[in-house]
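Final report, closing paragraph on structural work. Over the funding period we assembled a curated collection of sequence-structure pairs, and we close with a single example.
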Amino acid sequence: MSTVQMLVTASVLAALVYLAIVSIMSLVAALRAGGRREDAPDSYDALAASPLTMPVSIVVPVGSSPDASRTIGELLGLTYPEFEVIAIVDAQSTGIDALVEDWQLESREFFYRRTLETAPVTRIFRSLRDARLMLVEKDADHRSDALNCGVNLARYRFVAVVPPGVTFDREALLRIMGPALRDPVSIVGVGSHVERNPDAGKSADREARFQRLRSIRSLMFTRLFWGRLRKGLGPDGGVVIWRRDVVLQANGFSKAAAADADLDMMFRLQHGIGGDRRFVRNEEGFGRTGTLTRGEASASARRRQRAALQTIASWGPVAGNSVGTRAFAYFLESELITPFAQLWIVLATLSGATAGWFTWTTAILAVLLLSFGTAVVSAAALLLRGAHPDAPDRDELRGLLLIAPLEVLVYRPLHAWSRLAGIFGT
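Its predicted structure, as stored:
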């Protein structure tokens, strides 16, 4: 056996052992927590009725989304004492006229301090139907530019960013504001999950089910690990609440330097500002949104991989001073080590079998073990998900469990290819 062959064999075994440990730890933790809640669900009645509950500015970076009117309507129906909704719309959007008609919007003169530089704002509307709604028409630019515009216009201490197309219950804002309401001094941000689920009325195809499995696994890791950290990082694609004053102090969201402006901000707000500043993940989800098309999912994976590499390169030496050693270790594990280990097992064993280093039986067995480990983690996540509201029904649960072992063979190759494209910048 050559030295190269020995190194490849040892690395494959190490990757399998590492993934087995992750799977077993996830399963054991889920079994301990699944089927019950450690704490009784919070009652939000007192918070909803209290005038002392801190008001929130809700920013919706609409862009040209067709879901804007529905999202605005759901937001204005939230059970929360005081809030405002600021929708940021691209000036070239064809949906502005419909929004103006739906919400009886009237153009107004509005003077505000333009602390953060943004693309020009062309018009600002106020709703005659609901005074809490403001719509801002501005030149199209990066999503970060829309967020900076919303922060400029926000009146309140906390700013929640809600993507268009998300559906949620009336207590969603009360639920995710919990950590900030308990500790408004040190909390600079709260991240909350948005679960991916096929749109109502549409049958769930295989791609949609795999995306939902990933979403449910992410929520499990938050409840079992991330949610127990004092400092952390938010989930990808979730709803985030920011403390406005520290965002302004950090000069707003990066428009060009960061592949993921939210992730970049989570690090910056916890490092070098002074005092005890921390970002936390909320164990309770905000709501749900539709699944992505294959092209959208591929683009999202590329963006996330670029953001992860950029973050590791920028913050690796001082990560412990920002989000903490454990949080950064979790980030490395989920965004780099685990995906690379899974990809390496498949590539190394199949290539080794082709070169005659391994038998095809060994290669197939390694892939089957990888599939079984992924299915175990997915089953643990579904167990934990079943202990919370809006869990998958029996038929849906059966379907998710049946396709879980196929994820490595069907869905992960596309996801891995997209991550590789993100690494090489294509």
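The chain has 17 helices and eleven strands. The chain has a mean pLDDT of 87. We thank the funder for supporting this effort.
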